[in-house]
Amino acid sequence: MATRRAFLAGLAAASLPRVSWAEVGSPACLAAGKLGDEFVLHGLSAVGESLFEIGLPARGHAAAAHPTEALAVAFARRPGTFALVLDCLTGKTRHQLTPPEGRQFNGHGAFSVDGALLMTSEVVAETSAGRVGLWETAGFTRIGEWDSHGIGPHEIRRLADGRIVVANGGIETDPNDRTKLNIDTMRPNLTLLSAEGVLLDQVELNAEFHQNSIRHLALHGEGVAFAMQWEGDKTEAVAQLGLWVPGQAAQLCPPPDTEAFAMKGYAGSIAVSRDGDLIALTSAPAGVVMLFDGAGEWLATHQRADASGVAALATGLRVTDGQGGVWNYGRDGLVRLTRNATQWDNHLISLT
Amino acid sequence: MLLRPLLLLFCCATPALADFEDTVKLHILPGYAAFAETTQALSDSAVKSCDAESLKPAFNAAYDAWLGVQHLHFGPAEADGLSVAIAFWPDPKGSGAKSQRALLLGDAAALTPENFPDQSVAARGLTGLERLLYPATPLPADPCALIRATTLDLARMAKLINDNWVNSYANTVLTAGDVGNTTYQLRPEVRQALFTQIVTALEFDKDQRLVRPLGSFDKPRPERAEAIASGRSLRNVLLSLQALRAMVVTLTPDAPLTLAGFDRAIKQATALNDPVFAGVATPQGRLKVEILQQTISALRDTAMGELGPELDVRVGFNAADGD
Fold first, then answer.
1. Closest by alpha carbon to B198, among B43, B306, B78?
2. Model pTM?
3. B257 in the same domain as B162
4. ipTM for the complex?
């Protein structure tokens, strides 16, 4: 049956015209948000103008953009029971992805270089054991899964060469209500998989930081910059930023001690500028954005209420906030570009 | 049950009453001015004599003044980590005491006005000074130079914050929404910021000042209370509540449930008679501190439910629920 369904779905998809991003206004990034009581996904230009708006049935967490076609995959918040493949021209849902029995989406996903494969961060609901779900993208059918080699994977990033980095956040959650079950024993890790899902490398933090949940990733040189959320004693000063080049140890990048608590131990999103010179972290609970240089040296902390989304565009970093603001961000701080009636949600996703 | 809709209706009809000019002029500016004055007086006293006993009244006056503004975690106090350096607590690993010991035994050059601001935040400020004026064990060296450096640094930081508020940041807040104001492009952003300070400060009183010494029933942790040496643990909670109540009054005349919640908490704190929460080690004493903690917890929820809508703000969309 699965084969027949896949075949039919593939046939249906093949009959639809392939729409390029240029045909929907060449958005620079995607952002989910809330407008009144409605949830939406926007395509935004590099200066923060909304190019299209698509209704969502529930609050989204992050999106993944197809590399060439104007298709966005909107992931539900954890525990994720669905993801939608949205046609950004018509606004229609092309496909609804439902994880297999006993699996839940975990909020993020990534396409392969050629767009033929969608990888989704997932957990086995009962144990929070991590999986990378695999979907072919002609008809968006499930074709398999890989072990993420950790608990509670969150963000997945594809390196330029096709290898995959998974942030295994380490937190086992109740499958129904997200209650955290293993804070005392959690052990997050960063896992490098080949483009075929083979485990190539893995790194954990030093034992004293085992409660620093590695959740979000940005490409950085030969590796990734990663953002963490501290689940330990809030009075301990721990880094929210780390850098990892596969084959080496992870390097933590704490700010100076005057800034040690500025993020309230929480980084919600991370981005590295395309030239690699700047790294930005947001903390909505603290209402700040923190800027580092490309080596992870702290540069500045900027206050902005409910700032959460951050992405690197060709023209620099952008930050979005829960009041609808879109900001240009860099060494000169935050400069407002637009303010939309939509309250921007956790993540801002750049198109490459 | 009728109360909520009626209140909402009322507040919506009079939005102009809920605003922040008075908060700046009657709460924030006088608060920082008092902190600048008391820390200057403390520093002046230390120049005359660094005898601990004679400095304690000025130390406590400055600490009291800090509790009038400690909850304002935005603007000038957050620049360069000043608020962290003024009162570094909690410090579970004792890094302040370690750094201070190094300063007491080390090169005096670290104590000059040029170099001292670069020393560890954990070693400076009110919490650092408290360890010098109320030493639990004899200090390893004469603390006089370090006392003078710490008080001078406190006065410097207080003046810096006060000057920044007076000379520029008050105007930044008061001109929110004006063309060219890039910090606050809309007036509600200021109300949101102020509301957040109140909620966050109540959470700090509850989750840090009370929960840390409470520990668990099986393992109470009275030694983890704030400012035990100077006997200020309860006083800090009380003054924090009083300052927050005063701030609410300047924000709106229409938060009766919130004010009643503050009054209840302040009354309990005043009646507690356990200055350093040593009582948490006994079942009876523990119960009293737990009741205060629950009252502050309920007050925080009341403020969220009443004061937020009254000011037409809520805790941020992302701040409330990240991932």
1. B306
2. 0.85
3. no
4. 0.82
